[in-house]
Amino acid sequence: MRCVIARFPFDLTKSGVLESMKGVKPEPGTGESVTIGRRHYPVKQVGQVITRQDRRDFSAGEVLRAMARLGFTCRTFPELAAPPEGRAHGVR
Asked: What is the distance between the alpha carbons of residues 27 and 70, in angstroms, rounded to a whole number?
């Protein structure tokens, strides 16, 4: 599939992305993520690996659209759990 990320055209395939991300350890992160295999990667990490560009050169949305079109699951990292309503921190 042809897509444009940071004004540069890329021909991406699902198998090519899987191969590029093989052996790459997911970084901790918040915000959007892409599920590749059984791992959840921050979208900017995936973009950097598959395009070999600096993370500041592309938006997360560009990579999310490309990964979704290739059939990868894209989601938001779970936020830190908020305390139940009516209970203050450290109060039992």
From this structure: 22
Cβ atoms of 54 and 8 closer than 8 Å: no
**3-class SS at 58?**
coil
CA atoms of 37 and 67, how far apart (whole Å): 13
DSSP category for residue 86 = T
- pLDDT digits over 7-34, tens only? 999 999 999 999 999 999 999 987 899 9
Count of residues making up the chain: 92
d(CA 77, CA 40) in angstroms, rounded, equals: 9
Among residues 8, 3, 17, 9, the alpha carbon closest in space to that of 49 is found at 17
What pTM was estimated for this model as a whole? 0.79
